[in-house]
Amino acid sequence: MCSPxxxxxxxxDESLDLNSSIFNSLKSVFINVIPVAGNKLYFIAxxxxxxxxxxxxxxxxxxxxxxxxxxxLSDYLTVRKSMEINKLLDPKVELNSxxxxxxxxxxxxxxxxxxxxxxWVLIILFLGLFAYTxxxxxxxxxxxxxxxxALAGFEIISLVTLQMTVGNMYQMTGLxxxxxxxxxxxxxxxxxxxxxxxxxxxxxxxxxxxxxxxxLFYNHILQSENRITVTLLILILTFIPAFITGxxxxxxxxxxxxxxxxxxxxxxxxxxxxxGFIAVAGFTIPLLGIIVTLxxxxxxxxxxxxxxxxxxxx
Length: 314
Fold this sequence. Notes:
Layout: E1 2-6, H1 13-27, E2 32-37, E3 40-46, H2 54-60, H3 75-88, H4 102-113, H5 116-136, H6 142-165, H7 169-189, H8 193-196, H9 200-216, H10 218-223, H11 227-254, H12 261-288, H13 290-310
Antiparallel strand pairs: 1-3, 2-3
């Protein structure tokens, strides 16, 4: 049983998309699924025969209770209401899944549909904030900005993946964040001769390929049933881009003696991270899914390299 949202008397398009996506997802796994409207809309799913004549069931099984009885409920009205909702649900709406949490996007649309003006205000505010932060970042620091955005988004994906595979991200969240911070610390605090010889564009291309490759193999990570292996894999995958991002920060600050340059690079790092958190958690994962979001992160890094180094004439 699950409850995707409130039990409405009238369903708008957004609420029907939300409920249809979850209903269709349940139907893909269970033989029988029925909606039950109360204070919330409930979906009951089972491979066995289901009935929503609750008063009849409690009476036949001699279950004594106060509220689930014919004194308060009518089986006829419950069944009729369920049939009406069932007819409204659209079987063509895409399924909700771990890698593509489409229902979350529908839930956002449903909340925003209560006030149509809020959606445009939110979009304009986000685009304005995104444009302003990029405008304030100097061209050489765009590489840092977009690399930090991609890393922040990857951190969100790592934590979500940990929740879906291990089952409880709260026990391991500190370990994953510590691995990311360790990668940043090692990459920015230590000099590695081999890494230093690699040009900035090549580092960016490596990171872009890393995110895209992770997207290609992401389903295999979700299908793994060994919790220890998955945790170690996520820890390693988080460390690698953090290390390269930290090294980019070192390269942009260590060799440049311009006054206040370190502060500017650090500002680009923080603002990029903030935008990465907002964009990935609030928009790209629910709209595009995790795999496409990983490709999007690769595109962010490539954008930073393109405009921060290759096309930067200064």
